[in-house]
Design a protein that fits this description.
- By secondary structure, the chain is α/β, with parallel strands linked by helices.
- The protein folds into three domains: 104 residues, Alpha Horseshoe (Serine Threonine Protein Phosphatase 5, Tetratricopeptide repeat), CATH 1.25.40.10; 113 residues, Rossmann fold, CATH 3.40.50; 160 residues, Rossmann fold (3-Layer(aba) Sandwich), CATH 3.40.50.2000.
- The protein contains 23 helices and ten strands.
- A six-stranded parallel beta sheet has the order 7-6-5-8-9-10, with helices on both faces.
- Strand 6, helix 20 and strand 7 form a beta-alpha-beta unit.
- Helix 1 runs antiparallel to helix 2.
């Protein structure tokens, strides 16, 4: 094929490719290739077309052929992207390192190598290449964001803070960096700085928008409370996150009640009865009222309460002990039904909501050692997701399932009151036990949630809680062995 005809086919194919007509473009590319099998540019473009159609094996074949003909930087980039799409991070890294060897390091490559190392969990090498990327392009927000994320994984909040602030310096409207900076400040137990950044969180916005859908004539026309004097006003506050967050922040309900004439609170339905039993001077909404039946002057998402109350670091940890109690009648019923024995009673839970995190899930066999403790009875408080794992324990050990009796958290609280110790993952049960002042062991993964701060020898939120963290490569079984040694 002469150069003129080749150019005609190529230009037409390239335009088709760019407009999304991939198969027609591929046909023209193949015509060129039939005359010139070593046309490396066409080989690479065919590989890109196959990649776009998720034909990964063919894509790899054609791009590899292109590189065999001529080593061109962007051919390596295409091949690396093919491996990335397949999540074959080992082959992706090999390709990118070969590109570095052939052509040297430039920003995009340094960033790509850093990401590949991160995906392979080699965080030290990832840090090395991200730092090189930052030198090559000092105004790259994405590089600084990934570095900040790495330092969070390294449990180095000071460095993480440094790079989140760089992100915000580059883009003052960077909500994502502000949110993670807030969590980083929280981890450092710096709520004076963290709370203001926490206001950019998406769940706050989602909660307000959800309320606006439910109450389209009220929410848009009533102000969000900003901390001003509302002693003669009605305040409406509503949930926006998980059960654990609501239970942890329930300590602020008495403070809220002092600030307004009337407080209306809308927790998740499962928490309503528990809150009503503990805060009788607060109106707790079981279900959303009809709009005509709801009256308030100002409103606020519940997780914004510490910010508008201007609590800061010094005021966050009020009511560290027994700010929630179980209903005495329910406690007595549970005692008669499940706890009428003289054994040391341990309640366990191994899994919470895995939508956001799976690292907090504990394998149930890690609890096996508890069944060898003398004069001890073990109870399962595992509900919903993860409850199917109960059979693994019940088929081997004497364990009582409490979960089916939990109509809502008021019943869970009654069961907890009858227990001598709770051992669980980072979940709502831990917050309930802590709020009730019941001895509780929380098992934390190596990369744990911000709320437990950096000093794990002490729990800032609850007097009765003890924290155990898994070392970097430690199994849950090993962590539980440490717990059992301390129990003995």
């Amino acid at each position: 094929m002469n150069e003129t005809l080749r150019k005609e086919y190529f230009d037409k194919a390239f335009k088709l490719h760019a407009s999304g007509n991939i198969q027609e473009a591929q046909n023209l590319y193949q015509k060129i290739l039939s005359e010139n099998p070593d046309d490396c540019e066409v080989l690479n473009l065919i590989g890109m077309g196959e990649l776009q159609q998720k034909n990964y094996a063919k894509a790899e074949e054609f791009v590899t052929r292109a590189i065999a003909v001529k080593k061109v930087r962007y051919f390596y980039e295409t091949l690396a992207h093919i491996y990335f799409q397949q999540k074959n991070y080992t082959k992706e890294l090999e390709t990118r390192l070969e590109e570095e060897k052939e052509f040297g390091l430039e920003f995009e490559l340094a960033f790509g190598i850093g990401l590949a190392y991160k995906n392979l969990l080699n965080f030290e090498k990832s840090e090395e290449y991200y730092l090189k990327a930052a030198e090559l392009k000092p105004d790259s927000r994405d590089t600084y964001f990934n570095l900040a994320n790495l330092y969070t994984l390294f449990r180095n909040p000071e460095k993480a803070k440094k790079y989140y602030l760089k992100c915000i310096e580059i883009n003052p409207n960077d909500r994502e960096s502000k949110y993670f900076l807030a969590l980083n400040y929280f981890r450092m137990k710096d709520y004076d700085n963290g709370l203001k950044y926490f206001e950019v969180r998406l769940c706050r916005e989602t909660a307000i928008n959800t309320e606006a859908v439910t109450y389209p004539n009220l929410i848009p026309n009533k102000p969000i409370w900003a901390g001003e004097d509302i002693s003669d006003k009605i305040l409406y506050t509503y949930y926006e996150a998980g059960f654990g967050d609501m239970l942890m922040f329930a300590r602020y309900i008495p403070l809220l009640k002092q600030r307004c004439k009337k407080l209306i609170i809308k927790p998740q339905i499962q928490l309503c009865e528990l809150f009503r039993e503990n805060f009788p001077d607060v109106e707790v909404m079981d279900y959303f009222y009809e709009e005509k039946d709801l009256n308030f002057d100002v409103h606020i998402p519940f997780l914004s309460v510490p910010y508008v109350l201007n609590l800061g670091t010094d005021g966050m940890f009020v009511s560290r002990n027994k700010y929630l109690k179980a209903n005495p009648d329910k406690v007595e019923k549970y005692k008669k039904t499940y706890f009428n024995n003289d054994d040391f009673k341990i309640g366990i839970k191994w899994q919470g909501n895995t939508y956001y995190e799976t690292s907090r899930v504990i394998n149930v066999d890690a609890f096996s050692g508890l069944f060898n403790l003398p004069n001890t009875k073990v109870y399962s408080a595992q509900t919903f997701e993860g409850a199917e794992e109960f059979e693994k324990l019940s088929s081997k050990y004497d364990i009582t399932d409490l979960s089916k009796s939990f109509k809502d958290f008021s019943y869970t609280a009654a069961a907890v009151e009858n227990l001598d110790l709770i051992i669980c993952n980072d979940t709502s049960l831990a917050h309930l036990a802590g709020a009730m002042g019941k001895p509780c062991v929380i098992l934390l993964p190596y990369n744990y949630n911000w709320r437990w701060h950096t000093d794990l020898t002490y729990c800032d939120w609850y007097n009765s809680v003890k924290l155990y963290i898994a070392d970097k490569n430690e199994s849950w079984n090993s962590v539980m062995d440490r717990v059992i040694r301390d129990i003995l």
